[in-house]
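Entry 14. Structure prediction run on the chain below.
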Amino acid sequence: MFKFLIVGVATENNIKNCLNIFNSEYKKHQIDFYYLSTKKIGFNFNFKENFLLSEDFFVENTIVPDNIFDEIIIIQNNIKKIEYLNVYKCFFKKKYSVCKIMTSEHGMKSIDLNYIFENENNIDQVFWVSPFDINFVANCFGNDRFGELLDGDWDIDKFIFKDKIDFYNSFIDVRLKKKNWNETAYFKRNIYEIEIKKKIKWGTTNRKEFLERCIKLESIFDEMKNEGWKQKKNSDYVTINIDRNGEILFNDGRHRLTFAKLLNIEKIPVKIMVRHEEWVKKRKKLMEKMGLKSVIETEKKIIKEFQKHNRRIV
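Output returned:
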């Protein structure tokens, strides 16, 4: 008899949808299902045993069951690994090397915990950079690609942040030039995608909801202006990419980066999404040349030097 541990870190509806998939796919197999979460679920499922955590959410030192299960399946709201690092870390500390993540939308996929926490491009590493040194944009990647090394020409065609990211100038139009949101390029583009292409943008599905979100962004800007940069752990990080020459490229977090630039915040925490394979090769040579043993130490030093000599554009 196999033992599967289901870890629920999603909404009850998403958990229920995923468990229905388990019922249809695994009912012919001899499997005992166990359940671990921070809250009870309001529906019945044939679990062998329920483990209810005392905390309201996972933290790095949350105690999880020992390595006695054949599979760990973590039900998430989305596939953004960065949002669930604390969950993964709990099982990594219990000597699990692989687990599966599942969403009702994307199905199931395996993730290598050793790769996430032990490889030299650790996705959990935070770098502090000046927002004025994040000037260029090339290709942007989704949060499921954290820590990847990519070859190819994805870093060749670069654009200046304030020219490529319409939110930057649109926010200036609203706050400094006193325009209405519906007059801005940012608002018009997103409303077109919502109303014509039927896309969901940041959880909004119509003009009224999207306008409310824009107004909320103004309140976030005001909060940052009054209280400085506040970073929630494992979420809301601005992400960057590193091109073949070790230069910084913007990846995601346009709203908060715009605010940091406009408020002249000295440094902000960022995480690296993707590195170019050519940079990783050069990084190894630089480590030897600089007499550094740590990849992270090398990368921090290179980024620091880049900031020192980089010409500020915005």
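The chain has a mean pLDDT of 86.
Filed with the rest of this week's runs.
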